Amino acid sequence: MTLSRRCLLGPAALAAAVPLARARAQAKGIKIGVLTDMSGPYQNVGGQTSVICTNQALEDFGASAKGINVDVIAADHQNKPDVAVALARQWFDRDGVDLLLDVPNSAVGLAVASVAREKNKVYINSGSATAELTDAQCSPNTIHWSYDTYMLAKSTGGAMVKAGGDSWYFITADYTFGKQLQADTTKFVTDAGGKVNGSIAYPFPGTTDFSSFLVNAQSSGAKVLGLANAGADTVNSIKQAHEFGLNQSMKLAALLMFIQDVHALGLEAAQGLSLTASFYWDLNDRTRAFTERVRPKTPKNLPGMIHAGCYAGTLHYLKVVADMGVAEAKADGRATVARMKAMPAEDDCFGSTRIREDGRNLVPAFLFEVKKPSESKKPWDYYKLIATTPADEAARPLAEGHCPLVRA
User: Fold this and answer.
1) If pLDDT is split at 50, 70 and 90, which confidence band does 20 have?
2) Distance, CA of 368 to CA of 145 (rounded, Å)
3) Is the pLDDT of residue 214 over 60?
4) If we measure between CA atoms, which residue out of 138, 59, 126, 106 comes closest to residue 307?
5) CATH no. for residue 180?
6) Three-state SS for 190?
7) Residue 15: pLDDT band by 50, 70, 90 thresholds?
């Protein structure tokens, strides 16, 4: 059977391009929907490269050779939960989508998880950071793949206090992700003996001028400025802090920073920053091999950990579909997720991983420091490894969570 791939960039295009008759005609195959940010602050850390990496998983798995027809569609959720929910319902109800993937933006990710549970479909989150997806709002239909706020806070926040950064001020994106990242980091800071001098939340999305927030941070007397944001907001925050000379009096902690952000900033402005990631293209032979397969299709935007999660999650899902059979996998999303938890995952991006009963995929966390311009020897050669948190320590202990799927 044939393998088809399509990328549809918006709700209107999606609605017009996939008629009901065709959706029914493809009912014997698998359909994957990549719900991402194609035009907003996360378009580089997710966006088209997420679609490319999803399709790379289809190629590497050899779905066509195995007789499994797979169709990939994509849409822009515009960072709006209501838009995302409408698209998810349309995909599940009308278009025959079996797996929904990616979803940068935590508020959107939580909203989509509820729809996937209602419709009994599979949702692999690679883009949203909120640890709530495996806490009180966990679902038997959701897997959280690449990273979460707990991992970021533990790896970056705790390490900086140990290095002397024992007083913090936060500039926080005012939505689910930013608030939780600040809360999680605050816990690790205070548990390590540090303190928080203050914080300020800014409207998200839509804020581009961070000058007043940076002035407040500087006047707080804190040693560390914690940026509880992501994407273009992180880039703008660091650029403006560099322009104001704030990085001369405070250590900047980018609590969620992607390699695309470093690329946008340039090493002159980003050098010395500490950040945490679960994937880096130049980490080892396997990550380099994966990147070389993807690079020709996205030469201006190398994959980061969200893209790697789209690849790895799709690959593991397809292995389970082949094991269960297409009809059985399509019929019951919960059963498919349960089988994914029971089967160890293996891929070039993360190596060997396993999915816990709360839905969290256990991956190591790597603390990196951004290189100086003189240390970078080739394009996208940006990181040096400082420390590694093992996979079973990088995720919140099950006993500390509130997931009803976890047996006491």
Assistant:
1) very low
2) 20
3) yes
4) 126
5) 3.40.50.2300
6) helix
7) very low
Question: Residue for token digits 């579909």?
Answer: 321
Where do runs of H (alpha helix) occur along 127-282? Answer: 149-152, 158-162, 176-191, 211-219, 232-244, 259-265, 267-270
pTM to 2 decimal places: 0.89
pLDDT, average across residues 398-402: 94
Contact present, 191 and 226 (Cβ < 8 Å) = no
Q: Per-residue pLDDT for 12 more than 60?
A: no
Separation between Cα atoms, residue 132 and residue 134, nearest integer Å: 5
268 and 298 share one domain? no
In the block, tokens 């989150």 appear at 125
- What is 302-326 written as a DSSP string? ---HHHHHHHHHHHHHHHHHHHH-H
Provide the CA 74 distance to its chain's centre, in angstroms. Answer: 16
Range of the domain at 19: 4-147+283-363
| Any domain includes 270 | yes
Q: What confidence score (pLDDT) does residue 13 get? A: 41
